[in-house]
Amino acid sequence: MTNDETQSKDVSTLTTSGRLTNYNNAIKSGLEKGISFTKLMDQLINTANPDELVSAATQLAGFRLNSDFVTFPHQYSNADYYLLFMSRLLELHDQGKQVILHSVPHREELSQQLTSLGDRGSFDFIMENNEGGGVFYEEQASGQRLFYLNLEKHMMRFNSHALTQLFIIDYRGDVPEQTIKTALQVLIDFGTYLKRDYGFSVDFNILDTANAQIYPVKDAQLSAEIVDKLFVSAAENGYMLQNTDRGRGAVLQLPDDVVVTVFDNQKDGTPEWAIAVNDPNQAVSWFDVILRYEFMRNWYLNNLGQLEIKSDPLMFT
Asked: Which domain of life does the protein's organism represent (predicted)?
C-alpha cells in the first residue's frame, strides 16, 4: 500500500472533529507561511544591512507562498525579487535614482528602466528552469540577455554578445555615447557592489577595465587576414599598428595612452587569439574602445563571427 493510499485511508476513518482539526491546522499552516513571507518582505524593503538584504532576496526568490488550503491571488514572480534586490542594493549605495521600477496595472508584474535611457529600454529578470537556477537580466523588446545572476551561488556573468548587439548596434545610432556609458555604469556598479559586499564571482567580460584583463575571441585560430584588415583600417584613420612583442599580432596606440593589443595568447602551443586594452588609469574597456572609435567598431562588427569576445559558455551559447 502506498503512502497516499495509507493517508487516504487514515483520513477516511477520522471522526468529524478529526477532519475539522486537520482542515483548521492546514489553514493555520498556510497563513503562517504568509506571515513568514511578509517578514521577509519587511526585511527586503527596510533593511540597511547588505547581508540581511541578500538573505531576504534569496529566500523570496525561491519562496512558494501558496499551499493546498491557502492561495494568495496577488503575487510577484520569483524573478521579480531579483529586480527588487537590485534596486534596493543600488539604493543602499546611494544609486537608487539610477533605476525606475514599473508595475503592470491590476497585477503584480515588475519591470525596470535605466533612468539615463528614459523609455528607450525596459528590463526584467527571466528565470530559467534548469538545474543551475539563477536568472537573466533581459531587455524586453529585443530579448537580449545582458547578464546572468545567481544569488545562491554568488555568481554574475556579463554577456558580450548581448551588450554589443543592444548598445553598439541597436542603440548607438540614436542614443548618445555618454548616455550609453551612463546606463552601463549602473550595471557595472551593481556588479561591483555584489563583488565587494558579498564576495560574488563577477565576470565583467567586455566591460572590464583592468589592464590584466584579456578578452579571448571566438575564433581561437584567428586568420592573418583579419589582423591585416586592422592594419589597413588604422592606417586609413591616421594610426600606425606595430608588431607585438607577445608573439603574433599587432599593437595600436590610441589617444590618452590607451593601447590595444591583438595577439595570439597561445598556451602549450595551442592558438588562443585575444584582445587586451591597457591605459594608465585602468578606466578603459574593450567596449569603450569600440563605442568611441568608429574604425575599431567597424573592424570588430564586420568580423564579429571571428572577433566576438567569448562569454561564459555555461551561461551563454
From this structure: Bacteria
